[in-house]
Amino acid sequence: MRTSRAAILKGLNQPFEIEEVVWDDPRDDEVAVKVVVSGLCHSDWHCINGDYDVQFPILAGHEGVGIVEAVGKNVTKVQPGDHIVMSWMASCGVCPWCVKGQGQLCDRGEHLMDGARDDGSFRVHMKDGRDCWQLSFLGTFSDYIVTNEKCCIKVDPSLPLDKIPVVGCRIPTGWGAVVHTAQAHHGCTALVVGLGGVGMNVIQGLKSVNANVIIAADIHDKEKWAREFGATHYIDASKQDVVEEVYKITGIGVDYSFDCIGLGEVQAQCVKAIHKGGHAVFVGVAPITQTHVELNTWKMTLYQQRISGTCYGGRSPFELVPQMIEMYKAGQIKFDELITKEYTLDQINEGYADMFAGKNICGIIRY
To answer: Which member of 18, 213, 326, 365 has the greatest number of CB atoms within 10 A?
Structure first.
């Protein structure tokens, strides 16, 4: 057994608390990892505000990089000393979805919130012996974790780990939403609402397909960043009507729209912003209790409009993460510029406050 310092959530709408937690030794198919850097992603906040159906205590953090410290006897994918990007889905490889190449939809996802292993056991515990939920089988808001080897994607040790943590989630999620889920065509027009890490990578995906018009929108002033990543137009959603502005720019609406927030109001705007034959993609994760979006279904039918959800960019992380890294090495996609501020673990609540104030694209925790 081993202990680590971790940021623990103990109740709804309560801040992270730094605690010492206890880890079991890795089992035969598991890996012990020294976490080097963790991303601060909005998805983890869903555990705080009730958007996710979780129990407490829970160790969040699903986007990270690290160095393998120890492996179980049956582990074959990595060995001690390997540098890894962590995947938040421990794709089993044998369920119907994995067999179809859709590892991001693996049936293990039923334990995505609690991180329980296939036998129902947990690996991390509070000092008083209580089991602690381990979000996405990871819990990268800890300087050490034990996870399934299927969460480990080995990377070139020459890559600086502090530059690549966001490739574990937000880069492939945004880029893949354009290239794989929407299958956006060259010369297209598009709207991107919500300019955090996911939204900026949707813009990067649109650049990859040579979109002619990329309209970025946010309630915070992120115009400079949006244009640096490739946006051709910007809408201040705190003052302007997003749909009206889209029609002023395009005349007829856009080919594709991307909701990168996960709110019904924004999803409805994205559908209204597309033209005949247009495609709205819901990228942001909505609250688990959200069951309605305002839609004109008459218009959707006669205009042949489409709506799609997307998870992890519509592909297995074991396909997308290596692809994104090769593009980064070739200078075809930005990683470094996504990270706008670093924090210590003790500053995690400050990091989230900065996120909601619109001060960052992506914040990270460096251990």
So the answer is: 365
